[in-house]
Write a structure and sequence with these properties.
heterodimer; A: mainly beta; seven-stranded mixed sheet; four-stranded antiparallel sheet; 11 strands; B: 115 residues; mainly beta; 12 strands; globular
């Protein structure tokens, strides 16, 4: 079974902290994604990566950065957490080539206080 | 730019009722893919179906069926004889060819099935 694992289910951080959200997939997928989920807005793409050390901005990259040093791992970084970044964060991965389904992790619910 | 609209934010039904979740999309591409995902309370999105824009055949999988109509840009999802385990948030999503498998999601529909 494809598995996408996010390091934390719940996180509470203080305003101004640097926050790292980690995601690991075990299916050798080329593509990895970070989405943010807010009620009524669905999932919105923050960043994605189609290869090691490659990254592309999604729809809402402001306030975030990413790192992909190894194929299986994709990290989302909040440089200076703010309360408006309180949200559910979902990582996903997929094969490249023709459009295929993405596989999702269980999500990290981040609260910034 | 692409857009997906799920007008129903919440639906509540009683077990064994049929329910249809609506999805309307916008895209300028002629080649695109449509998806439905289920998000149970555990949080992980579960893939349900993928259709490409050239295949308008309706699909049935057990109690689930999907109606794809390009003329109305809709990809609706029907659950027949709903069960409590169907309670979840359902997302419709769109991916354009060449978009790197990026998905554009609708806002989601929360389905509550009461016993």
């Amino acid at each position: 079974d494809v598995k996408v694992t996010q390091s934390s289910r719940y996180l509470v951080k203080r305003t101004g902290e640097k926050v790292f959200l980690e995601c690991v997939q075990d299916m050798d997928h080329e593509n990895m994604f970070w989405y943010r989920q807010d009620p009524g807005l669905g999932l919105r793409l923050i960043y994605f990566s189609y290869d090691v050390k490659m990254k592309e901005k999604g729809d809402i990259p402001e306030g975030y950065s990413v790192s992909r040093e190894k194929k299986e791992r994709f990290s989302l970084i909040l440089e200076s957490a703010s309360t408006n970044q309180t949200s559910m964060y979902l990582c996903a991965s997929s094969f490249t080539g023709s459009v295929t389904e993405a596989f999702f992790g269980q999500g990290t619910r981040l609260t910034v206080v | 730019a692409q857009k997906v609209t799920q007008a129903q934010t919440e639906i509540s039904v009683v077990e064994k009722e049929d329910v249809t979740l609506d999805c309307v999309y916008e895209t300028r591409d002629t080649t695109y893919y449509l998806f439905w995902y289920k998000q149970p309370p555990s949080g992980e999105l579960v893939f349900l179906i993928r259709r490409n824009s050239f295949d308008e055949q309706n699909e049935i999988s057990g109690r689930y069926s999907w109606n794809f109509q390009k003329s109305t840009s809709s990809f609706n999802f029907t659950i027949t004889a709903s069960q409590v385990v169907d309670s979840a948030v359902y997302f419709c999503a769109l991916s354009e060819l060449g978009a790197g498998n990026m998905l554009t999601f609708g806002g989601g529909t929360r389905l509550m099935v009461k016993p």
